Amino acid sequence: MSSSADDLCPGLSSNPDISGPGVRIALYLQSLLSVLLVRYSPKDAPGAYWSMTSTAFSLIISSIVTAAAKEISLLDAIVVVYVLLLPILASAFGLTEIMSPQSSKKSTRSVHSPLLTVANWMRSAFTYSFALYVWISAPEFGQGPRACNEATFFIFFGASLPALRSGRWLNIAVWSLMTTRFVWRSGKSAKTLFVSLNALFSKTATQRLLKPRYPPKNEIHEQTVWTKDYGTGQETLRVRRWRPRQIFHELIQSLTSQILNWAPFGTGALYKRYGQNIIISMLAVWAIVMTELQLSLNNQGEINNEWGFGQILPLVLTISPLFSLWESFISRQSSGPASKSRKIRFSIRAAQNLTRPMCELDFWPPTTVDEMTEGQVAKARAPSAFAVITIDERDVYTTFEAPDNNCPVWNESFDIEVTDLSTIVVRVFDRKCIDMGWPSFIGYTTIHPFTVFPHASHSSAADVSNENENETIMSSLPSGKVDVDSIPLVLDDYTMHNMTISISISPSTEEPVNLPGPTSSSRLTTGPRKTKTERRAPKPIELLFRSR
């Protein structure tokens, strides 16, 4: 049947502005540059991401428009679907590198904009919709007679599958499963999408992204672990205390992102450095090879190799991320030795004399306010304050709120990686104003961690050999915690000396983070207590050494 179809169809046509070499090379390069910038210059990665996303959007929209006008062939549409896999893979890798999942052991989460959430979802929605549309309508799709569609083959791992028979049903099954999962994930994250979309057009709506998705329980969980080692007969008893994490609005993770976050032997540094690179490289090479085979193994007629506007523009868009990558390497060479990141423990302890930006009593008549008790007025005017600590505009930590308190006590600590140039910004917000849709910003302050530490003595640094850089770094740090009290907040370019915060910074991170005890100011309560039993048997290698 295919031979008769070949006789009726003189050759498969292809539109160079859609599947031409310029479009394909541009997406190949932009995907590669996005991955490289995420790895080597994260601050320039957003530019490459938006360049790649704009090219992917323009390719999808132009394909949909030309398909509706019957000006695109089934072969072109299959190539577009294959090519669109690269932006999905590159963005999944970039978002996996930038966005740390909340299930990880890190206390901080990654900073991202609502535009990134909406754009990432829209690109996936367009891709899934277009792929399903192509394969469901494959018999009558596009320009040319049906015989040309029958003569088209879908290339899968080098095998030529008829595009209207086995190849069609295989793609419908695969894309239907992926679309179903995407719709399910979108339904679970519908609130996040709605909030992010609203935040694009409203300043007050952006504040809702600072709040947890669900009201958090500010309580301490306690677990007693009894361990018995049957090899030595030793019994140990330890108490583990923790506080449940707050769940915030996050990016909707795709299937590819979840695959990259999964590791057979854990998500350690070795897998993060090499495992994800290997997996993403294999998937990208597979997508590129399948795209090129799709064009070379199909019987095309007269191939139009004319380089028009549709092929030149995507290549021009590649210049921006290319120059960003080049500039990052030049700046590294000209800025001298790069400072190594070091881990410190940051503690946000308390705040003093905070006031609400707006209050319900401001709209009430004075006579009504006079009828209220002093305690009711003080509670209404006191903020339910929480602090948002941002590190290099990359990672963010959000404290639990302290309800109805002008002088909240948080006493929350977390470990962060910082360099000599790192900047920590502490912003304080009022949750009650956010719930009312009012401006909620109370004030902020900026901290440079290594200016807080006292300077190391010249002798302590000089006594260490230069051959061991790690020892030099550790000797230049103090061994104890540094408390900084009464740091004034800044609001509307004015320093508010009456509103202050207190912090602590320590280079010592070996000990676990201490959890605060229940206090009236933090409304911290004692949560459930559990008992766990662990039994350990000696390993074979341990038995071997003991027998000797």
Characterise the protein shown here.
By secondary structure, this protein is an alpha+beta fold. The protein has 2 domains: 295 residues, no CATH class; 175 residues, C2 domain (Immunoglobulin-like, Sandwich), CATH 2.60.40. The strands form 4 sheets. Strands 1-8-7-10-11 form a 5-stranded antiparallel beta sheet. Helix 4 packs antiparallel against helix 14, helix 5 runs antiparallel to helix 6 and helix 5 packs antiparallel against helix 12. The radius of gyration is 29 Å and the shape is elongated. The N terminus and C terminus are likely disordered.
Helix tally equals 21
Spatial extent as radius of gyration: 29 Å
The number of distinct structural domains comes to 2
State the total count of DSSP E strands.
14
Which spans have pLDDT < 50 for at least 5 consecutive residues?
1-6, 100-104, 263-267, 458-476, 518-522, 539-547
Task: Tell me the major beta sheet.
Answer: 5 strands, antiparallel
- Helix- and strand-based class? alpha+beta
The best one-word shape is elongated
Question: What attributes characterize this protein structure?
Answer:
548 residues; Immunoglobulin-like; alpha+beta; disordered C terminus; disordered N terminus; 21 helices; single chain
List the helices and strands and how they pair.
Blueprint: H1 2-8, H2 16-19, H3 21-40, H4 45-68, H5 74-98, E1 109-110, H6 114-136, H7 146-150, E2 153-156, E3 159-162, H8 166-188, H9 190-199, H10 203-206, E4 219-229, E5 235-242, H11 255-261, H12 269-296, H13 309-317, H14 319-334, E6 342-352, H15 366-370, H16 374-381, E7 385-391, E8 395-398, E9 409-418, E10 424-430, H17 431-436, E11 441-447, H18 449-452, H19 458-462, H20 469-475, E12 482-491, E13 494-506, E14 525-536, H21 540-547
Parallel strand pairs: 4-14
Antiparallel strand pairs: 1-8, 2-3, 4-5, 6-9, 6-13, 7-8, 7-10, 10-11, 12-13
Helix pairs in contact: 3-4, 3-5, 3-13, 3-14, 4-5, 4-6, 4-14, 5-6, 5-11, 5-12, 6-8, 6-9
